[in-house]
């Protein structure tokens, strides 16, 4: 049970990092086109994970 909790936390963290990485690669114009400000990336990634 403890192991599955730890693995779930690790997977969530990896999803968070991947989301941040992908959104950070976009230009400000591309982010604006999808309605995201660069300052929102970490919060959006945290919510998505």
Main features:
mainly alpha; 49 residues; 3 helices
Helix count, DSSP H or I runs of 4 or more residues? 3
Distance between the termini: 21 Å
Helix content range = over 70%
State Rg. 13 Å
Strand-residue fraction? under 5%
Oligomerization:
single chain
The secondary-structure class comes to mainly alpha
Count of separate structural domains: 1
> What is the molecular shape?
elongated
Uncertain stretches of 5 or more adjacent residues: none
**Number of beta-strand segments:** 0
* Biggest sheet descriptor: none
Average per-residue pLDDT, rounded, comes to: 96
**Secondary-structure element pattern, one letter each:** HHH
InterPro entries: YjiS-like (IPR009506)
Pfam families: YjiS-like
Domain YjiS-like: 6-42
Give a structural overview.
The protein is mainly α and 49 residues long. The mean pLDDT is 96. It has one domain (2-48). Helices cover 78% and strands 0% of the residues.
How are the SSEs placed, and which strands pair?
Blueprint: H1 2-25, H2 28-33, H3 41-48
Helix pairs in contact: 1-3
TL;DR?
By secondary structure, this protein is mostly helical. The chain has helices at 2-25, 28-33, 41-48.
